[in-house]
Each structure stands twice: as C-alpha cells, then as structure tokens.
Design a protein that fits this description.
Blueprint: E1 7-10, E2 12-15, H1 22-25, H2 45-48, E3 70-73, H3 85-93, E4 97-100, H4 105-113, E5 117-120, H5 123-135, E6 141-144, E7 149-152, E8 158-160, H6 165-173, H7 177-183, H8 185-195
Parallel strand pairs: 2-3, 3-4, 4-5
Antiparallel strand pairs: 1-6, 6-7, 7-8
InterPro entries: 3-IsopropMal_deHydase_ssu, Aconitase/3IPM_dehydase_swvl, AconitaseA/IPMdHydase_ssu_swvl, IPMI_Swivel, LeuD
GO molecular function: 3-isopropylmalate dehydratase activity
Enzyme class: lyase
Length: 196
C-alpha cells in the first residue's frame, strides 16, 4: 500500500451521502482479521450486497460508469468508531484519495497512515464536483499534493487543501512512521549522543 504521492489525475466515484460512519465503510463483523489484506473486498459491504450475497446494482461501486482512484464523499466522512480497518478497506479497494467537506479526525489520520490522502474542500466545491460527475462520469479531478490543490478539470475550478507537513513529507516519499524514523536514525543517534 505504500505508494509515493505527487499529482494524481483520475475519474471519480461519487458517494453523495453525509455522515458515512466507519461501520458503514467496513461492518464490524469483518474486524476479526489483523492483516490488512482483503478488506477492500468488503468496503461498503452492506450497501454493495444484499444479505443473500447478490449485488445491489444501483449502488455506485457496482455501477461500471463510475471508476477511478478518487472517492468523492459527503460531509462528515468516517465518523463513528476509530477502527483503522475502515482506512484499510478504502486503501484495499484501490482508492488513493478521498474528497469531502469534512472528515472525522481519527479517520482522517487513519487514512493518512494508510497512504490514502483525505482532501477537505468547501461545501460549494464538493457540490460542484458531485454535479459535474453526475453530468459526466468521465470528469477528471487533479489532486496536486506538492501544491496542495484539487482541481475540477471540467470547470477549471480549484481549491487549496491543508495537510500536516510531516504527513505530506511521508506521503510524497512513500514513508510510514517507522520508515521515517529509520531514515533519520543517524540524526536521532547524534541528538541522543549530544544529550548525554
């Protein structure tokens, strides 16, 4: 799942629902595993499939006209429990970016820790994205991490997004927290030596 980020341009999967919580992202019955593998298969499981296992044809992830590595979601995405499995499922499905007008803090950090970039935009920009994607599912969105901008390629409209500087560095260099510490081992040891 570790992939360097730079500029991602992709079509989008729209999920115009507010207050999507982590139990909807990955139902609790799938939390027994401790390995990240396979969680993408059960992303939005209860919305994608009926209890008998048949596909819900009109759910967006089952609609072949919507594809891409960017999920555009309604306000307050990732609320509810702090389960990291929700971020595992999003990454495991293949999403690299989630765009919303508001993220639950813990879920936002879980996404960052799993190499999924949460991009928070204004409500007006989010609604424009939903409308543009509905009008043309082939609409592309550009997410520029170095410049911290997101652009609707259909309209040319763009917004700046915030990201913690440390997390930005890690994403751009494909580093998790352990990788970052290992890469800075000499500096850490030098600092420790100076303190003794």
């Amino acid at each position: 799942m570790k992939q360097k980020f730079d500029i991602i341009t992709s079509t989008c999967v729209p999920l115009p629902l507010e207050n999507v919580d982590t139990d909807q992202i990955i139902p609790a019955r799938f939390l027994k595993a401790t390995d990240k593998e396979g969680f993408g298969d059960n992303l939005f499981r209860d919305w994608r499939y009926r209890p008998d296992g048949s596909i819900v044809e009109d759910f967006v992830l089952n609609d072949p006209k919507y594809k891409g590595c960017i999920l555009v979601a309604g306000k307050n995405f990732g609320s509810g429990s702090s389960r990291e499995h929700a971020a595992w499922a999003i990454a495991g499905y293949g999403f690299r970016v989630v765009i919303s007008s508001f993220f639950a803090d813990i879920h936002k950090n879980n996404e960052l820790n799993n190499f999924v970039l949460p991009v928070q935009v204004s409500e007006n920009f989010l609604q424009e994205l939903f409308q543009t994607i509905q009008n043309n599912p082939d609409t592309q969105v550009e997410v520029d991490l170095p410049n911290q901008t997101v652009t609707n390629k259909a309209t040319g409209n763009s917004e700046h997004f915030d990201i913690n500087g440390y997390k930005k560095h890690c994403l751009m260099n494909g580093l998790d927290d352990i990788d970052f510490l290992v890469a800075n081992k000499d500096k850490i040891e030098k600092w420790e030596h100076q303190r003794n």
